[in-house]
Amino acid sequence: MEEPQDYYEILQISPSAEPETIHRVYRLLAQRAHPDNAQTGNEVQFRILTEAYRVLSDPEKRAEYDVSHASLRQERWRLLSNNSGADNDFESEQHTRLMVLELLYTRRRTELDNPSVSLLDVEALTGRAREHLEFTIWYLTQKEYIKRSDNGRIAITADGVDYLEKSLMSATQPRRLNAGQARAEV
To answer: Any bridge partners for residue 117, and if so which?
Structure first.
């Protein structure tokens, strides 16, 4: 079964956004994604944006959606809080950071014209809940290893590439013994 889409996330707005804000943000995003836009047009994204707007701009449909949206968020938090704790330790967080950086690094290398990834894609590709990724994204942004564009997508920076390469190199390099340690082991 396909997980329901988060229309608030799609439109990059708060669940408490006013109708005027929903309309204004939709028009901006729809203009960018419209298939007639030669630079940034994306028919699939345009359809998704339009569906989100159709639901959130209608008071009755929005009220129905908000009930399911609230239960979905509660379920996500329940799953996170029932986790065995493995996701809360330092090592797991460091692994998640490297995983996100590797994902963005690969995207940057393979898609030079479109190096950014949406948070929804990061969530799907890493298998981590969006709520769990918030700290990781915040940290990587603060360290300037990633940057967030105006449309909410994220991409790796040159500093992020350097950090990732250094981390991966040190993890794969065998430890070298200094002269004193080498003599002691003989």
So the answer is: 154
Domain 86-172 belongs in CATH node 1.10.10.10:
yes
* Cα–Cα separations (whole angstroms), residue 158 to 6, 148, 155: 31, 14, 10
End-to-end CA distance of the chain, in Å? 61
pLDDT tens-digit series, residues 104-143: 999 999 888 888 988 888 887 887 878 788 899 999 999 9
CATH number 3.30.565.10 is the correct assignment for the domain at 7-81 = no
* C-alpha angle 137-138-140 in degrees, rounded to nearest 5: 65
Query: How far apart are the C-alpha atoms of 138 and 132, rounded to whole Å?
Result: 11
- Whether 123 contacts 100, CB under 8 Å: no
Number of H helices, E strands in the chain: 9, 2
User: Tokens 């204004």, residue?
Assistant: 24
Residue intervals of the chain classified under CATH 1.10.10.10 are 86-172
pTM, two decimals, is 0.50
- Amino acid identity of 137? I
Only one residue has tokens 């390099």, namely 173
What lies within 8 Å, CB to CB, of 103 at 6+ separation is 117, 122, 125, 126
Q: Which residue has the tokens 């379920």?
A: 75
